Amino acid sequence: MSRTFGFHQQTGWSGSRVTLVVTTQFASTRSGASYSSGHPKELLTLTLSTTTDAHTHVDVVPVPHPGEVLLLEFLKPCGITQYRLANDIGTTRSQVSKITRGALGISADMALRLSAYFGNSAEFWLGLQEEYDLWKARQTTDVSAIVPWNHKEEADSHS
To answer: What NCBIfam families would the database entry show (predicted)?
Structure first.
C-alpha cells in the first residue's frame, strides 16, 4: 500500500480554501482473515475541503465524520460488514455502528485497531477525527470577542 498526502491552500479576498488530499493505493485486497498480495486493486482518493469565510472563520463546507469515511471509503468498497470489522479488530458491532452513524468518534484505541486492519496509520484516523471536531467547534464557538495576545505589547508594558 502506498499513501500520499497533499495540502493546497488558496487565499482570496473572500476567504481561504484549504484542501487535504489523501490518496491510498492498496497493493492487496482483504480476503477472509488474511491478505492476498497481487496487483493494485483499488485506488482511494479522499478529499476533505474546508472553506473558511475570511471575516467570521466559520467553515461553510462540512467535513465528513470519520465514521462516514470508514463506511463509504473502506467498508462498502471492500465488502466488509460492520459485524466482520468488529470481530476482526476485537470490538463490538455496536461500537462500529455508532462510529459509522457519527454518534461516536474515533478514539486513539480505535485508530490503532483500524490502522492495523486497513494498513494505514493511526494518525490518518485521528487526523480525520481532529478535522471533524474542529469543524464542529467552529460552528458553535464564537471567538470574535477574544483579543489576541501580543508578545511585543506584553514585553513593552513590563519594561
So the answer is: antidote_HigA (TIGR02607)
Q: Which domains does the chain have, with CATH numbers?
A: 2-140 (1.10.260.40)
Alpha-carbon distance 20 to 131, whole Å? 10
Cell, residue 146: 477574544
Give the pTM. 0.61
The answer to whether residues 52 and 124 touch, using CB atoms and an 8 Å cutoff, is no
CA separation for the pair 67, 154 (Å, rounded):
44
Predicted pLDDT at 136: 95
Rounded mean pLDDT, 136-158 = 84
Position 109: which residue type?
A: D
pLDDT band of 61, cuts 50, 70, 90: confident
Quote the CA–CA distance of 28 and 41 in Å, as a whole number. Answer: 7
3-state helix, strand, coil in the chain (%, to 5): 40, 30, 25
H runs (alpha helix) in 90-159: 93-101, 108-118, 122-140, 151-157
